[in-house]
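Shipment paperwork, digital attachment
Item: protein structure file
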Amino acid sequence: MAEKTKKTPKKAVKKEKPEVATLPGKKYMRPDEVAEYLNIHRSTVYLWCDHGKLEHCKLSDGVMRVLTESVKQLEKNGMLKAIY
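Attachment content:
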């Protein structure tokens, strides 16, 4: 009869995440990039776009880009503190 061998559990590998997110050097950002940068949920980005807090453009159904400059303005004007 064959002996059973014990399997050792695999250790989870943690992905290193930068502590401070930086704005990419491009004109437009995807909503998930904005959410990660501002440390908010992606659905919040969509809400803020709908309410005019972030400038954006729709490329097609379900595809949208946010102007990087509007993210900078939101942060610069202290709007994040007022929104929270």
